[in-house]
User: Which sequence fits this backbone?
């Protein structure tokens, strides 16, 4: 979090103390609430824009991108994946094969009763009086 505070103080050297406290508390308390840098921009972008009106929206978004990457770094310095975990696959996934397997009904269960309808006879009785 100290890196985020440093980044904010470098990017906004004349930031108001109250705005700085608000932004830093949002970063401290809501770290896991921000799934993307756009979420972070939505939460603090307006406040940062008020802190320095000479910065454009793109400048603020870039700062939010940098803050987001700082918030989601792992201990070794690399960015974390979804929910803080990365998954490396052992082999490539072939989605078409998985889709075919999911589409085929699995009727090998012993609980499914099969009926042979080929030997069903229908008898009609008519009363012709």
Assistant:
């Amino acid at each position: 979090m100290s890196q985020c505070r440093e980044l904010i103080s470098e990017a906004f050297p004349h930031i108001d103390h109250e705005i700085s406290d608000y932004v830093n508390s949002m970063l401290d308390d809501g770290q896991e609430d921000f799934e993307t840098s756009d979420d972070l921009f939505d939460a603090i972008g307006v406040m940062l824009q008020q802190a320095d009106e000479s910065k454009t929206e793109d400048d603020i978004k870039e700062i939010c991108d940098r803050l987001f990457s700082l918030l989601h770094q792992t201990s070794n310095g690399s960015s974390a994946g979804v929910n803080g975990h990365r998954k490396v696959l052992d082999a490539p996934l072939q989605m078409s094969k998985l889709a075919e397997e999911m589409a085929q009904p699995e009727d090998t269960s012993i609980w499914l009763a099969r009926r042979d309808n080929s030997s069903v006879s229908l008898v009609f009785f008519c009363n012709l009086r």
Q: What stands out?
A: The helical segments are 2-11, 17-29, 37-51, 57-71, 95-103. Residues 2-74 form one domain.
